Amino acid sequence: MNVYVALLIMLLVAGVVALVGVLAGYLFGPTKPNSVKNANYECGCDPTPNRGSQARFPVKYYLTAMMFIVFDIEVVFLYPWAISFFQQGKFGLFVMMTFVELLAVPFIYVWARRGFDWN
Predict the structure, then answer these.
(1) What pTM was computed for the model?
(2) Which domain covers residue 98, as residue numbers?
(3) What is the residue-averaged pLDDT of the chain?
């Protein structure tokens, strides 16, 4: 039961810290809204065409977000593999190289289509 007490204390402290942060931002943060602060902000680009609340954002913003998620997940899986590299042997190397190759295909595709260019 002692293990669960420590876990509950940690959760309680994390909840208190989160609530204090939200409360401090609410109490001490600026509260003067204007049109610039209330405007939508997506990737620094103005929506096209500009039709008010029904405006459409460029697809490139969403593609960049998806690329970030895919390659971020790749890195998350590479860290534990790198730590236990010597214990896994040849099978672990084969599995990870297959994983990297499968993720290299969309990377090469995006690179060939100039998805990483910001112009």
Answers:
(1) 0.44
(2) 3-113
(3) 80
